């Protein structure tokens, strides 16, 4: 089969690799129906990440089940499923506790589409003809009827990342105002967070981004926008999100917290020479909560899919365009998108 491989900065190649095979009763093989870009992909392709080439790209997708092992009970050939980007067994203590992004049965950072060391190539990526799923019953999530593959593909990662940044906190503080500072990578997570906050009945959502196209998308959701990151805001927010990848954005998100507020940072700060400084005294005084780190995709994606199925939130305005697999390399290296969705 063919797979789109990141071969070095700005270099993408379709390479022939071995077809996946089922070697144990709990495994499955699936065929991608829609593969979405992650905000991190643009940084990988530009050579701004620590993930060493070569490896197959793609870690957000909806797929069709093609083959299952004898022990698989939750899915069967022909089913449409979301494939979380993290490998998880479902049985270890971490998975049982819902910490599926840190499954103890596989090495740390075992993911599709990127990783560290051996994990770069072991699991492959979704921009391929077929995908091997080692723990089918634990990992695969049925796509609700009525949802298109293109709309649900981001549930593997970015859509769910935006969801965890706002939805649980709005459930605890209904209608609370939300601040989102966007722009990291290709910029979809901040938009998803802001739009989901609006869909979850926040009384005010303020979205900051220097990119006019992304601000226009936010405004199409009825969201208030600002075209720069100011030194400070006059208002305080119980819920803030740093999806900026900019130290100034993170500083603003933290400084804008109201009493007992929570700030979730979905951005990654790779440069060791440019690490943010936390205002620890202010955070302590305000009883603030700061959350950062990778999501637990398998745990949280079902709730995100329920939101999509409800019709209260449509993620498709964030998608810049839908592109055939054959044109994926050119589309990715053009760097002119917020979100791409690839279809075979």
How big is the Rg?
Answer: 19 Å
What about the largest sheet? 7 strands, mixed
Low-confidence stretches: none
Q: Give the integer mean of the pLDDT values.
A: 96
CATH structural fold name of the largest domain: Quinone Oxidoreductase, Chain A, domain 1
How many structural domains in the coordinates? 2
| Helix/strand class | alpha/beta
Q: How many β-strand stretches?
A: 16
Q: What's the CATH architecture of the largest domain? A: Alpha-Beta Complex
Strand content is: 15-25%
SSE sequence, one letter per element: EEEHEEEHHEHEHHEHEHEEHEHEHEHE
Helix tally equals 12
> Quick one: overall form?
globular
InterPro entries: ADH-like_N, GroES-like_sf, NAD(P)-bd_dom_sf
GO molecular function, one term: metal ion binding
Cofactor: Zn(2+)
Organism: Nocardia alba
Structure overview:
The strands form 3 sheets. Strands 3, 5, 6, 7, 8, 15 and 16 form a 7-stranded mixed beta sheet that branches. A 6-stranded parallel beta sheet has the order 11-10-9-12-13-14, sandwiched between helices. 27% of the residues lie in helices and 23% in strands. 50% of the residues are buried. It is an alpha/beta fold and 344 residues long. It contains 12 helices and 16 strands. The model has no long low-confidence stretch (mean pLDDT 96). Helix 6 packs parallel to helix 7 and helix 6 packs across helix 11. It has 2 domains: 205 residues, Medium-chain alcohol dehydrogenases, catalytic domain (Quinone Oxidoreductase, Chain A, domain 1); 135 residues, Rossmann fold (3-Layer(aba) Sandwich), CATH 3.40.50. Strand 10, helix 8 and strand 11 form a beta-alpha-beta unit.
């Amino acid at each position: 089969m063919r797979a789109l491989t990141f071969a070095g900065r700005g270099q993408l190649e379709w390479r022939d690799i071995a077809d996946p095979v089922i070697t144990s009763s709990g495994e499955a093989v699936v065929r991608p129906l829609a593969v979405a870009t992650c905000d991190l992909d643009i940084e990988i392709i530009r050579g701004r990440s620590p993930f060493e080439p070569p490896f197959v790209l793609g870690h957000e997708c909806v797929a069709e089940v093609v083959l299952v092992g004898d022990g698989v009970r939750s899915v069967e050939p022909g089913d449409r499923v979301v494939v979380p980007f993290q490998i998880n067994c479902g049985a270890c203590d971490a998975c049982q506790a819902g910490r599926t992004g840190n499954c103890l049965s596989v090495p740390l950072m075992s993911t599709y589409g990127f990783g560290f060391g051996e994990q770069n190539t072991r699991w492959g990526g979704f921009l391929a003809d077929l995908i091997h799923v080692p723990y089918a019953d634990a990992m695969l999530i049925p796509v609700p009827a009525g949802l298109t593959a293109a709309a649900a593909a981001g549930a593997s990662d970015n859509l769910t990342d935006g969801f965890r940044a706002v939805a649980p906190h709005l459930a605890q503080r209904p209608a609370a105002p939300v601040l989102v500072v966007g722009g990291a990578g290709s910029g979809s997570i901040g938009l998803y967070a802001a739009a989901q906050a609006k869909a979850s009945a926040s009384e005010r959502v303020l979205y900051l981004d220097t990119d006019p196209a992304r601000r226009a998308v936010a405004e199409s959701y009825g969201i208030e926008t600002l075209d720069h990151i100011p030194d400070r805001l006059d208002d305080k927010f119980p819920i803030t999100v740093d999806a900026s990848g900019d130290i100034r954005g993170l500083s603003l998100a933290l400084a804008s917290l109201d009493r007992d507020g929570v700030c979730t940072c979905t951005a990654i700060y790779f440069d060791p020479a440019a690490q943010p400084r936390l205002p620890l005294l202010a955070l302590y005084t305000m009883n603030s909560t700061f959350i950062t780190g990778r999501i637990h995709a398998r745990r949280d994606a079902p709730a995100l899919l329920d939101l999509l199925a409800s019709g209260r939130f449509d993620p498709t305005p964030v998608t810049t365009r839908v592109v055939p697999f054959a044109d994926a390399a050119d589309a990715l290296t053009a760097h002119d998108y917020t979100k791409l969705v690839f279809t075979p």
